[in-house]
Amino acid sequence: MRKHSLDRWLLTAILMVLLSSSSFAAKNGAKKKKKNSKEVTYDGTSLIIDGKRELLYSGSIHYPRSTPEMWPHIIKRAKQGGLNTIQTYVFWNVHEPEQGKFNFSGRADLVKFIKLIQKNGLYVTLRLGPFIQAEWNHGGLPYWLREVPGIFFRTDNKEFKEHTERYVRMILDKMKEENLFASQGGPIILGQVTKHT
Ligand SMILES: *[C@@H]1O[C@H](CO)[C@@H](O)[C@H](O)[C@H]1NC(C)=O
């Protein structure tokens, strides 16, 4: 991955995740460094995880397309196949089907899914959307979002950006609460917010 080929949005997103996890670390500065905590950085050549250049062999598993009972098997197969990283989209319309009413249970149990990946010793990259290209209804955007006055999707629109930010922060906070970022000892090494246009 060459630095100059990284899209500015992707960079912003990566930084957002790095910053939000490091500000978390700062807030908890009094405590000792978390067990297994890893520092994720990059330069013009590669990602660097805890000072080591890492080559990521990443495959996609979309958690809501299968059941939690199937996840351990699917993740094991991915590992046996030689992957060291699982990437998944985060499906906004699964997690917030009605505005302000959240669902993280059953096939929507993102935390459980990520913890299973962690148990298998693999990294996670989180593709937060908001729009997802995954043959998924409405591109992953909740239907209620259409009713927001003045909203235009996937463009430089105040309402769209405000709702996107609220959703992304909600997911990031949840990941932080569960110590799932690499800086907290978790498996998430990268996050990506999709370019809108
Ligand atoms: C939560 O989302 C999952 C996956 O879409 C769905 O199977 C389940 O019924 C939902 N739970 C509630 C309480 O809506």
Automatic annotation (TrEMBL):
It is an enzyme of class 3 (hydrolase). InterPro entries: GH, Gly_Hdrlase_35_cat, Glycoside_Hdrlase_35. GO terms for molecular function: beta-galactosidase activity. SUPFAM superfamilies: (Trans)glycosidases (SSF51445). The keyword Ubl conjugation does not apply. It catalyses: Hydrolysis of terminal non-reducing beta-D-galactose residues in beta-D-galactosides. It holds the Pfam family Glyco_hydro_35. Its EC number is 3.2.1.23. Residues 1-25 form the signal peptide. It comes from the Eukaryota. Residues 46-193 form the Glycoside hydrolase 35 catalytic domain. One of its GO terms (biological process) is carbohydrate metabolic process. Keywords: Signal. The keyword Iron does not apply. Belongs to the glycosyl hydrolase 35 family. PANTHER family: BETA-GALACTOSIDASE RELATED. This is beta-galactosidase.
